[in-house]
Amino acid sequence: MSKNLAWKDVDWKLVHKRLSRQQSRVYKASIEINTAKVHALQRRIIGSLDAKLIAVRRVTTENKGRNTAGVDGQKAIPNEMKMKLASKLTLDGKAKAIRRVYIPKPGKSEFRPVGIPTIEDRAKQMLAKLALEPEWEAIFEPNSYGFRPGRSCHDAIASLFLSLRGKSRFVLDTDIQKCFDRIDHKKLLKKLSTFGQMENQIAAWLKADIMVGYFDRPDEIFQPLEGVHHKGGGGIIYPLLANIALHGLETYLKEWYATSWYPFTGLSRKIPMRDRKASIGFSRYADDFVITAPEISDIKQIEKQVEIWLSEEVGLSLSKAKIRIINSTEGFKFLGFQLISIKKSGQYKIKIHPSKTSKKRLIAKIREIISKNRSASSYNLIKLLAPRIVGWGNYFRFSECQIDFSKLDYSIFSQLRAWAFRRKSKGLRSRTKLKEKYFPNGKTYVFRGKDYTNNWVLAGQTMIKGQKKENFLPKLAWIESGQYTKIKGNASPYDDNHLYWAQRMEKYSGFNHTISKLIKQQYDRCVICKERFTPMDVIETDHIVPRSKGGADKFENLQALHKHCHIQKSFSDSTVSMDPLSVVGS
């Protein structure tokens, strides 16, 4: 591919195909423990224009934090600069300072630091990730779920369900003290065990100055001695590095339990090694993990072993204030869910539902949105509330949620009714008229292909380009609960098992209902490039006939496209400005 090629003329299908082939080879070589071949292929990837183009596209076009500036103050860049950046991109062992900002923690008065690299460093980090991730996806333990392609919080919860199903067990519920701030750099680099060029570059990122402010007006500059800037808005490589740092904990605990502790307890040595290891349950999502075991003596010894491993491997320790050893019958929280073992008819059943904290946060957020939009139209208020409510419901629908959803619906409705009844004006003095305007009688609403008749659904309407547009606020109870199937232990998007990943994309893509339905309808392929969707893709809905040309805003006129294919189609449809800067946020 010529380096003089214009950005808009890049053949992304060909670029993806060539890069995917190289990544699959890295994955297979890593499984075969052929280190020399892994490093040779990784050098080829970081030197290829294909990988550089995709790295730049992901950080400037696809990533949510693309419009967040680093210390240089630069946000969006035009297409000409994207191509120049891709052409010169190289892992040169250098790293610019990271801009630090502080954002509030959800539901708390505390703030957490966020590190934001420059656009160039983000692109370099993505380039490094494209080479490193396939190697480590072949190595990572089966019950590691955080920040890995094709895996989610629901897999971690499903893993715990399988561990607790049919019995009560003792649970180690704890947290690593300042995990991502205190990871030992030397131990991390030793564990990474990569080739010189990659190691030098990652070492530079780990030691990069942290700046509060910008280059031209810094408020504070300091250099980290330990830790990875995991919570950085644009810190693309850091979640992978954190997973690498914590890799091995599950294997160590199960090996220790099966070979050292299990025989010591006097239990039969004839029990197969596989069954001994399966006696303890382990589920990790980033730095959050839960361990289960049959006896309280087991879990207390496991806690000690966790401390030993963390100290020796990555220089970390458990947070003493947050250590809890409980029986699963007492219940515990993990990733927003509440899990508890309940005995019925002589048998234990594991019950999973949204935690009280998660429900309180949702109600508080709804109250905040309504409070800030007291004078907004019902149409605009629904546009603000619907994604929050439906997104929350989609996350918790893989649980016993229907009773919780119904109760939350009433709490939300109470706030909406109070909002509506405060909006008295000329001709709208009585509550009857206000009710009819905002909660019309006798209407039927279609949500996800089903009809719902309810006289207390908030509805809105507005005029857009001379046409009347209507919307409504769905009820949480309309979101049907489902059963989640945990991902296969060592499955990875790099394993070329296209059928398996196509089936998971249809059911558990994490996208909204419309996109999921379109993916299934399109047989898991993008309409423009004809390539299969993967868990790494950014997918958007597109109007087949643009609305600017009279296309209807209906499902029949929608299709699911890769974000980059969507942008190219928008250019051809002339529905966006031809100014390249305008496309960055489109």
Shape: globular
Gap between N and C termini: 27 Å
Per DSSP, the total helix count is 20
Gyration radius from CA atoms, angstroms: 26 Å
Pfam families: GIIM, HNH, RVT_1, RVT_N
Protein name: Reverse transcriptase domain-containing protein
GO molecular function: endonuclease activity; nucleic acid binding; zinc ion binding
Domain Reverse transcriptase: 84-339
Topology (elements, then pairings):
Layout: H1 12-31, H2 35-47, H3 49-62, H4 79-88, E1 98-104, E2 111-116, H5 119-137, H6 153-164, E3 170-175, H7 185-192, H8 196-207, E4 210-214, E5 217-222, H9 238-246, H10 249-264, H11 273-278, E6 281-285, E7 288-293, H12 296-314, E8 324-327, E9 332-334, E10 337-344, E11 347-354, H13 356-372, H14 378-396, H15 402-421, H16 431-438, E12 444-447, E13 450-453, E14 459-464, E15 467-472, H17 498-508, H18 513-521, E16 539-543, E17 558-562, H19 563-573, H20 580-584
Parallel strand pairs: 1-4
Antiparallel strand pairs: 1-2, 3-7, 3-8, 4-5, 6-7, 9-10, 10-11, 12-13, 14-15, 16-17
Throw out a few tags for this protein.
586 residues; alpha+beta; DNA Binding (I), subunit A; four-stranded mixed β-sheet; four-stranded antiparallel β-sheet; 20 helices; 17 strands; disordered C terminus; HNH; nucleic acid binding
Write up this protein.
The chain is α+β, with helices and mostly antiparallel strands. Among the domains are: about 355-480, no CATH class; about 500-575, DNA Binding (I), subunit A. The protein has 20 helices and 17 strands. The protein has helices at about 10-30, 35-45, 50-60, 80-90, 120-135, 155-165, 185-190, 195-205, 240-245, 250-265, 275-280, 295-315, 355-370, 380-395, 400-420, 430-440, 500-510, 515-520, 565-575, 580-585, and strands spanning about 100-105, 110-115, 170-175, 210-215, 215-220, 280-285, 290-295, 325, 330-335, 335-345, 345-355, 445, 450-455, 460-465, 465-470, 540-545, 560. It has a four-stranded mixed beta sheet, with no helix packed on it. A four-stranded antiparallel beta sheet has the order 6-7-3-8, with helices on both faces. Strand 14 (about 460-465) and strand 15 form a beta hairpin. Helix 1 runs antiparallel to helix 2 (about 35-45), helix 2 runs antiparallel to helix 5 (about 120-135) and helix 13 packs parallel to helix 15 (about 400-420). The chain is globular. The model is unreliable at about 575-585 (pLDDT under 50).
